[in-house]
Specification:
single chain, mainly alpha, three-stranded antiparallel sheet, two-stranded antiparallel sheet, globular, binds fe (ii) ion, EC 1.15.1.1, superoxide dismutase, Mn/Fe_SOD_BS
C-alpha cells in the first residue's frame, strides 16, 4: 500500500493512508501543484482545504511489479489493463467507500482487516473487498516475466520433502486449480502448525490468512483472470501459469521471511 500521509500522532498505521474525502489521485495531484503556487494562491488553497475537514482512511491501488505488457505472450497487456486496472481497482475503491462509513475498522492494517472482517467464517460486508485487494497484490507478485522455471535450492528441497517431487507438486497444484468450482484461488501455503507446504483451494475472496497459514504462491481462478486470453480454457491458463509465469524468486523470498515465524530446522533459504 502506498503511504501518502498521516495526520494523527496516534495513528497505528504504516500501510494505510489518512486523507481528506478526495480520492488518492486527486490528493497526489493537488500536493504536487501546491509547490508551484504563490502565497495568495496557497492561502486560498489552505482556506479551501479547511472546508474538507472530514478525515477518512483509504488504501491505494498498488501497481504490479512489472509493466502491463511484461507477461506477454502468456498474459496479455489487455488482460492486465482490465484485471488490474478495472477489477482490482474496483475492489480498492469499493473498500475505501465501505471504510469511510465504519469507524470500528478504522486503524486496521490490511492483514488485520482481513482477519477481523472474516469474523470466524461469518464475513462482514468489508471482507470481500479487503481480501480481494490483498489477493490481487499477492497474485501480481506471484508472477514475473520469464517465470515458470524450476525452483532452486531451499524451496525446491522443501517442495520435494512435502510433495515427494517437484513434478508431483506441479501435478497436484494443477489438479487443485482444475477441480476448484466456480470463482476462487489456489495457493501454495506454509502451514504454521504442521510446518510443511500444502496446496489449498479457497472460494471467492477467502485467502489463507484467515486460517493463519502463510501464503507462498497464488493463482487467481476467477474467469476475469483468463477469459480475454484463454476464453473458458482454464486448463490452458493454469498450465501456462505453471510453465511460464509463476515466480519462484518471489516464492523463495516469501519462504525466507516465513522461516522467521516457522521453524523448519536448518535454514533452507539463505537469507541475504
Ligand atoms: Fe482477479
Amino acid at each position: 500500500m502506498n503511504l501518502l500521509s498521516c495526520s494523527s500522532n496516534h495513528c497505528p498505521l504504516s500501510s494505510k493512508v489518512l486523507a481528506s474525502t478526495s480520492p488518492p489521485s486527486k490528493i497526489l495531484k493537488s500536493s504536487v501543484r501546491v509547490r508551484n503556487l504563490g502565497w495568495g494562491e496557497r492561502r486560498d488553497n489552505m482556506r479551501n482545504n479547511r472546508r474538507v475537514s472530514k478525515v477518512v482512511a483509504y488504501y491505494g491501488l498498488k501497481s504490479p511489479p512489472y509493466r502491463l505488457d511484461a507477461l506477454e505472450p502468456y498474459m496479455s497487456q489487455r488482460t492486465l489493463e482490465v484485471h488490474w486496472g478495472a477489477h482490482h481497482r474496483g475492489y480498492v475503491e469499493a473498500l475505501n467507500k465501505q471504510l469511510a462509513k465504519n469507524d470500528i475498522l478504522y486503524g486496521c492494517t490490511m492483514d488485520e482487516l482481513i482477519r477481523v472482517t472474516y469474523n470466524n467464517g461469518n464475513p462482514l460486508p468489508e471482507f470481500n473487498n479487503a481480501a480481494q485487494v490483498w489477493n490481487h497484490d499477492f497474485f501480481w507478485e506471484s508472477m514475473q516475466p520469464g517465470g515458470g522455471e524450476m525452483p532452486t535450492l531451499g524451496i525446491l528441497q522443501q517442495i520435494e520433502k512435502d510433495f515427494a517431487s517437484f513434478a508431483n507438486f506441479k501435478e497436484k497444484f494443477i489438479e487443485a486449480a482444475l477441480t476448484s468450482f466456480g470463482s476462487g484461488w489456489v495457493w501454495l501455503v506454509l502451514k504454521r502448525e504442521k510446518k510443511c507446504l500444502a496446496i489449498v483451494k479457497t472460494s471467492n475472496a477467502v485467502n489463507p490468512l484467515v486460517w493463519n497459514d502463510i501464503p507462498i504462491i497464488s493463482l487467481d481462478l476467477w474467469e476475469h483472470a483468463y477469459y480475454l486470453d484463454y476464453k473458458n480454457d482454464r486448463a490452458k491458463y493454469v498450465n501456462t501459469f505453471m510453465n511460464h509465469l509463476v515466480s519462484w524468486n518471489a516464492a523463495a523470498a516469501r519462504m525466507a521471511r516465513a522461516q522467521a515465524f516457522v521453524n523448519l530446522g536448518e535454514p533452507k533459504i539463505p537469507v541475504a
